[in-house]
Design brief:
The chain has 250 residues and is α/β, with parallel strands linked by helices. The protein has nine helices and nine strands. The structure holds SN-glycerol-3-phosphate and magnesium ion. The site of SN-glycerol-3-phosphate has 11 residues, from strand 2.
Length: 250
């Protein structure tokens, strides 16, 4: 059974605030969300930051890539101006602080491991270790619904996360379900598959559920489609449109 919230704000606050920032989380919380998806990768010094693109420039006002900077330097860069002047100076979050904030405010996390090229295993290891330390209390108490879910397109990152923190749940992210999804899921020991809803069929959804796996979809922005997916047995999804699809959507 899916022990987590069903509606997640994608990248913190969907498209109503700059993605992967604390301002985004606060925007999601203002809309009633207590569950988010966000992206994490390692900076040059191996310290994880909350960021979607390894190549800076789209959301972060600086040249180069994430691995050209130490994390504390990234945390001084502006990740908000691209979205609007009122967000000028909104920093690239350090993962440790961001996750701590979410935990303290009861915001459940789907942490997407989004390694910069070549950093797959290191990202899985570091983020899994830090997450399991932060949630040692919930893990010890067996409070499954509070513990974050790590997900990734990178199987190397998932394997490394498994080795570093075997008790942390993981999910495999895919665009379309590959033909060998059962074997891959079993080999990785994941609890769920995270699928692009545009590539999912009702029959596939039924198969995944029948296999005893969780089924999560990204990124669902149309309420009619959201309703259809829930009707197929999809457990949860993330949305950019937190204004159209609220935390209690049915
Ligand atoms: O985790 C689901 C979704 O976030 C995957 O795509 O590019 O938005 O990280 P992306
Ligand atoms: Mg993501």
């Amino acid at each position: 059974m899916w022990p987590y919230p069903r509606m997640l704000a994608h990248r913190g606050g969907g498209t109503l605030a700059p993605e992967n920032t604390l301002a985004g989380v606060k925007r999601g919380m203002a809309a009633g969300f207590r569950a988010i998806e966000y992206d994490v990768m390692l900076a040059r010094d191996g310290v994880p930051v909350v960021l979607h693109d390894p190549l800076l420039g789209r959301t972060v006002a600086a040249p180069g890539s994430v691995t050209d900077y130490d994390a504390l330097a990234l945390a001084t860069l502006d990740a908000g101006s691209w979205f609007g002047p009122e967000y000028a100076g909104e920093p690239v979050p350090l993962f440790a602080e961001f996750a701590q904030y979410c935990k303290a405010h009861g915001v459940w996390m789907n942490i997407e491991l989004k390694p910069a090229p070549g950093f797959d295993a290191a990202t899985g290891t570091t983020v899994a270790r830090m997450t399991s330390a932060l949630f040692a209390d919930a893990l010890a108490a067996g409070e499954r619904g509070r513990v974050p879910l790590l997900s990734s397109f990178s199987e190397a990152a998932l394997q490394a996360a498994r080795a570093a923190a075997p008790r942390l749940p993981r999910a495999l992210l895919v665009d379309a379900l590959p033909p060998d999804w059962r074997e891959r899921a079993a080999g990785l020991g994941v609890v769920a598959l995270h699928v692009d809803h545009l590539a999912l069929t009702a029959a596939q959804a039924a198969d995944v559920k029948a296999a005893g796996l969780g089924l999560f979809c990204y990124t669902v922005n149309d309420p009619a489609r959201a309703r259809e997916l829930l009707g197929w047995g999809v457990d949860a999804f993330c949305t950019d449109r937190i204004d159209l699809i609220g935390p209690d959507f049915r």
